[in-house]
Task: structure prediction
Amino acid sequence: MGDGPDPIRAAGAVLWRRGDNGPEVALVHRPKYDDWSFPKGKAKDGEHVLRTAVREVWEESGVWPILGRRLSAREYEKERRPKRVDYWAATGNGGDFRPNDEIDRLEWLPVPEAERRLSYEHDADLLREFATGPNRTTPYIVLRHTSAGDKRAWDGDDVLRPLDARGRAEAAALAETLAGYGPARVFSSATARCMETVLPYAARMSSDIRTDWAFSMGTPMAASKEAGGRFTQLIGDGIAALVCTHGELVTEMIERACETLGATAPQDPRLPKGGFWVLHVADGTLVSAERHRLQAM
Result:
């Protein structure tokens, strides 16, 4: 970070719902500053940015958000420190606003009225970005399994190699982080380490885990690059999906998906263990793609 102060990290969302004449977005009023803005707030130490976004929107609006496409981050100076706020479009999944010391009012407004009400130009820019894209998108997640020790130290069949203690802790953290995108079908490599990685998420979301050899290592299907083709099949059916697989297959899956969706693939699609891609798709088009890694445990 250089010699300057560490940046303030924060996250929030453009929370929206259907209105009579198009989408309505939620704006919150802070009496301390007498301003109107989107629900957002600072990250806790070690908190993943996705969990920050969900928690802060919940705390400020009383609405539990389901994150959609990623919007542009906003960077500015606050109290002589750089500040970065990451944003997503989000829909609500229950809850009601209750005034508190920090937020005393919440209003749902059509986009033109919301733009006039907002106190800051950077928020107005964010609203205009939201308004130019599709409101609702479907997430497709590619997850690399978490830590499973050194395979050279495992004497059994590699298909049965389990997660180690660190990997199990990472899988539990992933369950909470990935829940921010809402429920999704869960597909996994048939290896123990992949199934154990998604088990906490599947339990949290009451989802079945469907094993698929196409996403597994050490099989003829994987060797013939069926992973990419199988993933594009899932994207084509329009239903959210989470796929847990191996690092060796991630590049093929992301590149094939981008090709199918008419988008340019990232220069380096690889993931660290426990890392994941989220492709937000609407009407057969890739609207946005985001890559995340878990913070150090």
